[in-house]
Amino acid sequence: MSLTGRSFRPISKMKCFMMAAIVFFSLVIVVSASDDVSCYHCHTKTVTEFRNNVHYEKGFTCADCHGGSSQSNASIVSVNVMSGDFIGRPTRENITQICAKCHPRETSDYKQSIHWDAIKSGHPEAATCTDCHGLHQIRPIDDPDSPSNHHNSPETCAKCHSNPDIMSAWYYGIKTDRFDTYKESYHWKALEKGYVLVATCSDCHENHKTKAHTDTDSSTYPANLPDTCGKDGCHPGVELGTNIASGLVHDKESLHTGKLVFDKTGMSPQMKAYYLGPFDLAYWIAEFFKILTTGVIGFFAGMVLLDLLSRFKLHRRW
Q: Model pTM?
């Protein structure tokens, strides 16, 4: 009996069943009306991410990359999704082939890169399309949230190039401090300040056609550095000559050896261009300022101590 004096009748089992059925079929209709329903019910998180993808905005579906039928039978489970050319999760090598269907020029450049050579040689750790552009949340490169955005590219490259396991796995010899040494450069400091027209990884090493620095076609090969640094948007119209390659790469180490090299005997002209004079001037300038700074600090610290000592002696006399 309620406070109003009216009693509540228990709901019959049939009514409960009918209400549950109505709720269930309502959910079915809502889910069935959504895109990629056949993938959504198992891959909810992935499909949700894909709906923030530039490809989704242009009308692509899961089937365009994973194969199978793009048609849904308007039910929760589609019987056609895994039919025909369904490949499921593509291999690292197949990712490139999938992207090539819509991006042939970029794929052609990528297949000339050291990353593709590594994958073809059986090293799946090497970078492929999704490592740089993202997987299901691919955004346009001018989107500030895109990993391939100009401002974000150093951190994107660092995911692999700062990882010792990946670097030693497929190309032993690339040091893992490339991002750290880049952060000591003027380019990084300008990038942090918000400047847009400043060099990041892809400006020097190229976007898709990244080659080893020892490759004569590489943009970072010593003889090619004047053209790389002198291109439009960087330092156009400047007579850089081969001196653009002088000093140390990434502000610390030699690109070719990873060591400080002072003896240039037997080096090719291109190799010699990395160093100034009979020794590595950039290294010794840095060392000079380290010694100078330490000496100045030590000198003034000594003066302060002497002053305190003299004051202490005078105090004792009084």
A: 0.63
Reported as a pLDDT band with limits 50, 70 and 90, residue 281 is: low
279-310 residues labelled b (16+ CB within 10 A) or e (exposed): ebebbeeeeeeeeeeeeeeeeeeeeeeeeeee
What are 213-263's pLDDT values in tens digits?
888 999 988 778 878 888 888 877 666 554 555 545 565 544 434 444 445
Per-position b or e across 49-87, b if 16+ CB within 10 A of its CB: bbeebbebeeeebbbebbbbbeebeeeeebeebeeeeee
* Domain map (residue ranges) of the chain: 241-310
C-alpha dist (Å) from residue 166 to 117, 119, 127, 173, 275: 15, 13, 10, 11, 30
Residue bearing tokens 């042939």 = 104
